[in-house]
Amino acid sequence: MTRIHYVFKTLGASWGTTIIKILSLGLGLTMCCFIFARIDHDSSFDSKFKDPSTLYQLWMQFSIDGKVLDKQVQCQYPLAQACVDELPDIVESGTVLRSYGEKEFKNGENLVKGNLIVVDSTFFETMGVELLSGDPKALTALNCIYISDVAAKKYFGDEDPLGKDLYINDYQLSIKGVFRSWGEESTIPADFVGNIIEWCGNYNRSWDGGDSWLEYIRLKHKPKSAEDFNRQITTVIHHHTPPTKSISVNGLAAPIHDTYAGSEQVRHMTLTLWILGVAILLITALNYVLLCISALSHRAKAIGVHKCNGAKNGTIFGMFVIETGIILLGAMVAGAFFWWLTNRFAQETVYNNFAAYLGLDRLWIIVAVVVLIFCISALIPAKIFSNIPVTQVFRRYTEKKYGWKHALLFIEFAGAALVAGILVIVIAQYNTLINTNPGFDEDNVACVYNPSNTREQSEAFIAALQNLPYVESVTKSNGFPGYGYSGEIIGKDAGKALFSTRFDYLGDNYIEVMGMTMLAGKFPADSSEVLINEKFAELIGETTESAVGKRITYSSYPVNISGVIKDFTTGNYYQEQQPFLGINAQKYILPWLSMRLASPARESYMKLTEALPEITGGEAPYSFLFANRKVETYKDIAQFQSLVIIAAIILMIICAIGMTGYLSDEMRRRSREIAIRKVNGATTSSVVGLICRSVLMTALPAVVTGTAIAWYLGSLWLNQFAVTLHSAAAAFILSGIGTLLLIMLVSVALTVRRASANPTENLKSE
Q1: Which is the most buried residue in 93, 318, 473, 707, by most CB within 10 A?
Q2: pTM, whole model, 2 decimals?
Q3: In terms of DSSP H, where are the helices of 309-435?
Q4: Beta strands in 541-643 (DSSP E)
Q5: What is the 3-state secondary structure (H, E, C) of 417-434?
Q6: Does residue 341 have a pLDDT over 50?
Q7: Among residues 7, 36, 29, which one has the least CA distance to residue 328?
Q8: Residues 346, 354: contact at Cβ < 8 Å?
């Protein structure tokens, strides 16, 4: 108790320093928990299924004329069942599903929303999903739907949802079962499960094309060799779709956990977050150590007094461990306050549903971070202070070994440069993604889902939209740019396959409405002609002009190229430019209507969303502004950017606190030298320069080291994008220079007051 009493007296005597230490540790502790919670969240995807280690997702990979395409998650419908039939020694069951995204259902006057997937009869068995109530066999019946326990609680409370009717566009569905939710951390989020036959009919269910399905298999045991297992799956595919001279398909399988956590984007982001988290943890702890060591000279006498009164080295060691523990407890309270204060901001900008990601199941993250920070923060200064000799009670103590402080300062500066480099490159890349011209007029074009069932309804809907005063023109299509299209094999020379192209069915005014550029030729007049982009022309060995009039084979039918348009973004900026083929489909009912809006586009879009319910006579169909969709597409990058910005701000604050302690000690240690220099005519600026040069000697190599590491990590992260900023090297160099300038400005600001003090005041204390 005596030691605790002395610890509290010491902390109270230097309450200003104590508060600074608490805030520094609290900020670092909170940020570390933020980052490591995100890492654990990303690594926990699809882990709530029963025995996820034996639940594998199927993939396919096409090779066309010797060129191996990227692997794709969409598979041919019969593949999963074929694996069950032909690989019975290892495959226990298989299932196929399709995701419909968020759907809105009506239950009386109430609106029920949630993600819908449609599945086959073996879904619950294969995925290991627990059915809490209801009949699993009803999954094959018509007019049935299953609801998750989470959605049932949300919309029906304690009332039993079984037998409740849900309506979608006047189509009746009855709830036949309740399943246990497998959480939001999943690549197949679902609040509702429906019958795949009822929703999809016979669409693309054969081996002849139809690679449109997500498929999973449950293994009896993990394969000894992934390569051998993939070869077996490939053999199954070749039994049903034998390879030709120009086209072959390979099968792949990987644990469902790898679908998200193993993706290139997530792996690079996770690696960067790991390094950021570890850097902040170390810098937070070592900054505390630096503050403690900087106070060594004026605390040495008190330690000598304790030793004169019988305190042993172990006693002093224990006192400093207790002191660190008390400060860390205060930091945890401060961290909890920061957590509460920023929870809403973090939920909107760093994570979705942030509170759910930091539940009790991730309490171990906080415990681990606290233990690690405590071990570093407590043991190093406790060891140094306990070794101070008892003779220091009789003289002023001066630490002769400055290497500790310079090493700690080096780590802080390097960490600051590392985070600054990553911050600059993430911000620059995000701005590049958002501001890159997609090849069409995304600012003034909106898209609306077409709910029409007949041609007459579709034409009336288009006419109603066209008559709106803020809508300049309307067109239709089967898909839209920036999302991705279906693919088709393009052939030439007696049916030889050349490559796979993206394609879409387009209204005859599509190019004008979307603001695309026609480079040569004209829009297709009928189904015997097609429109292509520049990339397509390049792949068939033609120029923009010479491609017009050339004959190709599309979907096994010969067609003529009528025109060439300028390249535009078919998918997203993670992908290289893809070939595109457009087909005139003016006579068809197509699901998407695109329209050019009058300026200002956002104001016109708001008016459009208000008018849609009146036009349809019911619920407004789904709509979006293309400019908003790009922001949504790169939302993960924006959230990552926000996280790095927060980390950078906190790290700069921690570094500034560490520099304050270091420079205060330097000015105190060198007070006699500074006073003598000033008595002999030295100016304040020369004294400031003297101190800042010593900081610069540590800061310069540290910033170079931190920036070099940031350069390496940033280059890895940028590799996932097909579109990147043009001056990455310049961005890193500027971040390093900016960090160094900021360090020197802080150094000047912290030293100028003491350097300008009257030298006689310093000499009085000698």
Answers
A1: 707
A2: 0.79
A3: 313-349, 354-357, 363-386, 403-435
A4: 551-554, 557-565, 580-584, 592-597, 623-625
A5: HHHHHHHHHHHHHHHHHH
A6: yes
A7: 29
A8: yes
